[in-house]
Design goal:
The complex is a heterodimer. By secondary structure, chain A is an alpha/beta fold. Chain A has a 6-stranded mixed sheet with strand order 1-2-3-4-5-6, with helices on one face. In chain A, strands 7-8-9-10-11 form a 5-stranded mixed sheet. In chain A, helix 2 crosses helix 3 and helix 8 packs across helix 10. In chain A, 31% of the residues lie in helices and 17% in strands. Chain B has one domain: Immunoglobulin-like (Sandwich). Chain B is mainly beta. In chain B, the strands form 2 sheets. Chain B has a 4-stranded antiparallel sheet, with no helix packed on it. The chains are: A alpha/beta, B mainly beta. At the A-B interface, loops of A face strand 2 of B.
Chain lengths: 346, 99
């Protein structure tokens, strides 16, 4: 009897709820709001909009490195929306009648704000921009200097080979529009085949080709009279390097070339240390990577196990260690698996 | 086709060999796409003291600059000779002492 009552109540409850379950009272007035299966489209694609927000404020403060060199130091991070790409170092060199920019940062806005900060120190135009390598955190501000100052851009040929107007580089994809707006890829005006000495606005410089090291084509800038060397990403400190496009042997050769110059200040591509010890971390990192990966190859460690075997514990406390060091080790294994010593002489 | 790199190490009577060959490994279809001349390693023969220990027929299916690993019974001091023949019949030979 009890069961029969429960069944009866259930049937009555179901019948009473039918108008709510099979609600036919909803009239579809906008048929296009339904998809092919007559389901409501909850998230519609909308036309992209131009951001109305003001330009990103990078809050740039130049740091004086030597009598004629000031630099902007970026965060020890990957490019993110939060840092707006301000995670690499770029510098200004004061000439007799103009500024010379070493790398131009991650965006037009960055370059514009960097110049605004520098013009408070000396109201000179930027007539030359010198680029270290093709990674886009170092040269996307070029179009500001080109369009506003008519600057000549000196840089690696690989920029023109690998990047073209309209390309969606990593920075363009990552940053908020407030930061990246107005940024355009502009080609390098002048490239050199090999190490070249020149004088710009009274400043003697040596633009040194180190070849395939951190990227396909790396260069550093040596100011012999000032004993300053601007080396970009061949040297990093305070964080682990990203060797995703580089080679260990090339890095070691490049570091030797840097050490062979007489300098008191070295500005790395990422990191805050600029004294005589600035390159030490990079030298140690690549020496240890080479030594330990070669030993692992000798011991028969396979590619599957190399990142467990070679961990570079000495750098565990450095920024980006967990993100970048395993991939650096794996890439080093690919590079060094067939290493026989010939690769050292370029 | 250019140079090759060979490593041959003996352990417990087994010689482990790693060999890397420089070749674009582009078959006809890929060569047409890339507008380059078709070139790939078609055959690889490895001889230990003149005795064939490894032989393989290859094609454009392999990656550019392929890396081979194989092993055979041998001893320290043996001479390993590897010969590659590409699709146009060009051959290249490399030798390495087993260590």
């Amino acid at each position: 009897m009890k069961i029969k009552l429960i069944v009866l109540f259930s049937i009555v409850a179901f019948v009473l709820s039918m108008p709510f379950i099979f609600n036919k009272s909803v009239k579809i007035t906008d048929a296009h709001k339904l998809d092919a299966d007559n389901n409501f489209i909850l998230y519609e694609w909308v036309q992209p909009r131009e951001s109305m927000a003001p330009d990103w404020d990078y809050n740039l403060k130049p740091v004086k490195v030597s009598d004629r060199v000031w630099c902007f130091f970026g965060a020890l991070e990957m490019p993110t929306k939060e840092n707006a790409g301000d995670m690499s170092n770029s510098c200004y060199i004061k000439g007799d009648d103009s500024w010379i920019a070493w790398d131009s940062g991650p965006s037009y806005n960055f370059a514009q704000q960097a110049y605004a900060a520098m013009s408070k120190i000396a109201n000179l135009p930027v007539k030359t921009v010198i680029v270290s390598h093709e990674h886009d955190d170092h040269w996307l501000g070029n179009n500001y200097y080109k369009q506003v100052h008519g600057a000549e851009i000196i840089g690696p040929e690989s920029v023109n080979v690998n990047y073209h107007k309209g390309d969606q580089t990593r920075m363009v994809k990552t940053l908020y529009q407030d930061a990246i707006r107005k940024t355009e890829l502009v080609p390098v005006d002048k490239s050199f085949k090999d190490t070249t000495k020149f004088t710009i606005s009274g400043v003697n410089m040596e633009y040194v080709r180190v070849g395939y090291a951190h990227s396909e084509e790396d260069w550093f800038l040596y100011l012999p009279n000032d004993k300053v060397v601007l080396v970009a990403d061949v040297v990093m400190n305070g964080r682990v390097t990203s060797n995703r496009d580089g080679i260990v042997i090339g890095q070691i050769e490049a570091l030797k070339a840097i050490k062979s110059r007489d300098w008191n200040h070295l500005v790395p591509g990422h990191g805050f240390i600029t004294d005589k010890t600035a390159a030490d971390e990079s030298i140690q990192y690549f020496d240890l990577t080479k030594k330990r990966v070669l030993q692992a190859v000798e011991d028969g460690v396979t590619a599957d196990d190399i990142t467990k075997t070679v961990t570079l514990e000495e750098f565990r406390e450095k920024s980006l260690y967990y993100l970048l060091s395993p991939q650096n080790v794996f890439r080093a294994y690919e590079e060094l698996e067939m290493y026989n010593g010939d690769e050292d002489t370029k | 086709m250019a140079n090759m790199k060979i490593k041959a190490k003996e352990k417990d009577g087994i010689v482990g060999v790693k060999a890397m060959f420089t070749s674009v490994m582009a078959d006809k279809e890929e060569a047409e796409k890339k507008k380059i001349v078709s070139e790939y390693i078609a055959q690889i023969i490895a001889k230990n003291n003149g005795v064939v220990v490894f032989e393989v027929t290859a094609s454009g299916f392999m990656s550019e600059n392929p890396l081979f690993k194989f092993s055979y019974k041998g001893k320290v001091g043996d001479t390993l000779e590897i010969t590659t023949t590409d699709n146009s019949g060009k051959t290249e030979t490399g030798t390495e002492k087993v260590s």
